[in-house]
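Lab manual, section 2.4: Encoding a predicted structure.

Procedure: take the sequence of the chain (97 residues), apply the prediction step described in section 2.3, and record the output as C-alpha cells. A sample record is shown.
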Amino acid sequence: MPPINGYDAIGENVESIAKPYFCYPNPAKDIVYIEFSPDVDCQSVEIYTLDGRMVETCHGASLQNNAIDISNLNSGVYLMKLKMADGKEFAERIVKE
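Recorded output:
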C-alpha cells in the first residue's frame, strides 16, 4: 500500500533525510555492523526490545570497530537507536536470528 500524505503506516515521514549509516546483516546472528558516512560522528548506539526495555548500549571507544555484539540477545525484533554528535537520532529495526 503506498504512503498516504507522505507518511507510511507507522507514521514516519517517507520523505525523510537519507540515513548517514548502513547497518548489516539484517537479520543477524551474532554481530551487527554499522558503516557510517565519513562526516558522521556517532555518540552512542542503544538496542531496545519492542516494549521499550534497553538491552544493549555502546558508546565512545566501543563504537570504533563498528560492530555490535548481539549474541547474548534472544531471537526476535529489536529497535536500534543511533545518537549522533549533532543531536540527530535515528532508529532502525533489527532482527536477531
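Check your result against the sample. Residues 1-11 have pLDDT under 50 and may be disordered.
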